[in-house]
Design a protein that fits this description.
Blueprint (H helix, E strand, L loop, with lengths): L10 H22 L6 H6 L6 H12 L2 H14 L2 H27 L6 H8 L2 H33 L4 H19 L1 H29 L4 H5 L6 H4 L4 H21 L1 H9 L5 H29 L11 H9 L2 H39 L7 H23 L5 H22 L7 H19 L7 H31 L1 H19 L7 H22 L8 H6 L26 H4 L1 H4 L14
Membrane topology: Multi-pass membrane protein
Main location: membrane
Protein name: Sodium:solute symporter family protein
């Protein structure tokens, strides 16, 4: 492959494409902007988004730079099973959101963030812990999308990587800044249509231009035995299993997903997430096959960077016109998630930081709240651009953030169902899990001698318990507590023979699993000693809209909750809020 930009798209062509794409999205954002801006609509579009926009937004947001680039990287690394592990498990995690989402919406229909509900459930420390994790995760997610944009622009044109990052960052910021989540969700629909063009038109062109299917016969010698094996244990342990753990954490802890959960009309949650499951799986597995094709062709990633596989395949096999369309599709895909990250970050700062921790009760100024949200977007974009300059591996960043959020999954889910979970149990469980996760994930533990062997056994045992937690939570979401407990036990028993003694060798997977297990053990043990029985019906009264009914614009409905947020520390403490039995707390999700 020649120098980037030497034979593909001219600078003028790229600038015209980017100006047209971001100009169209900016036009849409300006069309939906209201004269009297509304803070609640800026964050969740009035909790009343319809099925079509909601499903498109959910699908488009979940398909981000990692979905496009890392799926291909997985196919290039692990063979044909790589995209299956990436796309299938990611799709199923969307499906697993909806039963928990219905429970969350039922007890807090007017919420803006998960952290906001945690304050009403536990107190400010749990809220800030969850909000902080989301800030870190969303900035990393934002960075990966900027990295993807910079990489593809630098490959297709004379522009440098840094210039490409600036183009994408500026384009996303300029249209999202005006209308927040409303702009993000409506432009997602346009971006999803572009992504369908990628799967239905561009990928088949690349395959046939690369002499498919004969290339899969002549290039078989480029594959190792593990890459040729569809049921490769290496692919599952190194890619599939860590991704299952990571995306479950994303589903529960990611504010971009939660924001869409709070925005969609409550009776449309199931339809929205089932549709997004199918759309995500089809598109991500399809794009991942480009990595498999690159593996059969014996392609060497440009500059040794696996993030270049997708644009490199397009550059080498597409005519100029199709290459321009491909650039639009990729930019649209990464922009749809980048604008979601900006909206998520602004909501956290607006609702969790300013609305409930800076402003005093009854003194929240919606106009000032909007200013906080917009300033947050500018600062987050700047941070993302600076971090993107390090050009970190997208897949590694994805799995790291997912594992980091794994420490939050059980404490968050149990807080919506189990009245005995306390603020102290929540915070201690998360911090303990992080304290164990970091040394395991970054291999800070000794591996030699008796101490190393003992620690290896401990990691294996905790990892096996983590497997049980993940399987148990999945089963609990759809079938209730009893089935969840049985599934967890069976998973532990089934995994023990092969996992004990070897699991610690897979640091990415074991790090994620110990985060799940430690947070669960600590949370359960501390909660069982608690005499608290939280009344979940009080959350509805504590989590409401920030704007009054008179200021709600056409983009959202009037407030269904209190005009003032529940930002009183006393009101947020379950010990002070009341100790009557939780009449509305079922033992498992209900259909």
């Amino acid at each position: 492959m020649g120098e980037p930009g030497s034979t593909f798209l001219s600078s003028t062509t790229v600038l015209v494409i980017l100006a047209a794409f971001y100009g169209a999205t900016l036009y849409m954002a300006l069309k939906i902007r209201r004269k009297k801006e509304n803070a609640d609509a800026y964050m969740t579009a009035g909790n009343n988004v319809g099925f079509g926009i909601a499903a498109a937004s959910m699908t488009s947001t979940w398909i981000w730079a990692s979905s496009l680039y890392a799926s291909a990287t997985s196919g290039y690394t692990y063979g044909i099973s790589g995209p299956i592990h990436y796309g299938l498990w990611g799709a199923l995690m969307i499906l697993f959101i909806y039963p928990f989402g219905r429970r969350i919406r039922s007890i807090a229909p007017n919420a803006h963030t998960l952290a906001e509900i945690m304050r009403a459930r536990h107190g400010s420390s749990s809220q800030l812990l969850l909000a902080s994790s989301n800030v870190i995760g969303s900035i990393i997610s934002l960075t990966t999308n900027f990295v993807a944009g910079g990489a593809i622009i630098s490959l297709f044109s004379p522009f440098t990587f840094a210039q490409g990052v600036l183009f994408v960052a500026g384009g996303v910021l300029i249209y999202t800044l005006w209308s927040g989540f409303r702009a993000s969700s409506l432009t997602d629909f346009m971006q999803l249509v572009a992504m369908f063009a990628l799967i239905g038109v561009i990928i088949p062109i690349i395959f046939f231009a690369a002499d498919f299917p004969s290339s899969f016969q002549t290039g078989a010698e480029n594959l190792s035995a593990e890459q040729s094996n569809f049921f490769s244990s290496e692919a599952f342990l190194s890619q599939g299993a860590p991704y299952i753990a990571a995306v479950l954490a994303y589903a529960i802890g990611n504010q971009t997903i939660a924001q869409r959960l709070f925005a969609v009309r409550e009776d449309l949650i199931k339809r929205t997430f089932v549709t997004a499951t199918i759309g995500y799986g089809a598109m991500v597995i399809g794009i991942g096959m480009l990595g498999v094709l690159a593996l059969y062709l014996g392609l060497t990633p440009y500059e040794g960077d696996a993030n270049n596989i997708v644009p490199q395949m397009a550059a080498e096999h597409l005519p100029t016109v199709a290459l321009g369309l491909f650039l639009v599709v990729i930019v649209g895909a990464l922009s749809s998630t980048a604008d979601s990250d900006l909206s998520a970050l602004s909501s956290i700062m607006m609702a969790d930081i300013y609305g409930q921790n800076v402003a005093r009760r009854g003194t929240v100024d919606p106009k000032r709240m909007l200013l906080v949200g917009r300033v947050t977007m500018v600062l987050a974009t700047t941070a993302g651009v600076l971090i993107a300059s390090f050009r970190l591996d997208i897949l590694d960043m994805l799995v790291f953030v997912g594992a980091l959020w794994g420490a939050l999954v059980f404490p968050v889910i149990s807080s919506f169902y189990w009245g005995r979970v306390t603020n102290r149990a929540f915070v201690t469980a998360v911090l303990a899990a992080l304290a164990v996760f970091l040394p395991v994930r970054f291999e800070w533990l000794p591996v030699d001698g008796a101490l190393g062997a003992l620690l290896g056994v401990a990691v294996d045992v905790l990892g096996v318990l983590g497997i049980g937690v993940i399987i148990g939570l999945m089963a609990f979401g759809f079938f209730g507590l009893r089935v969840g407990c049985v599934a967890a036990v069976l998973a532990v028993v089934g995994a023990s023979p092969w996992a004990l003694g070897t699991l610690h060798d897979y640091t990415v997977l074991s790090g994620s699993l110990v985060a799940y297990s430690v947070s669960t053990l600590v949370c359960v043990l501390m909660s069982m000693r608690s005499g608290q029985e939280f009344d979940f019906s009080t959350i509805h009264a504590r989590v409401g809209n920030f704007d009054s009914a008179e200021t709600t614009d056409d983009a959202g409905r009037a407030s269904g909750g209190p005009d003032a947020p529940a930002d009183s520390t006393d009101a947020a403490r379950p010990d002070d809020a009341g100790s009557r039995p939780a009449e509305t707390a079922p033992t498992g999700p209900k259909e």
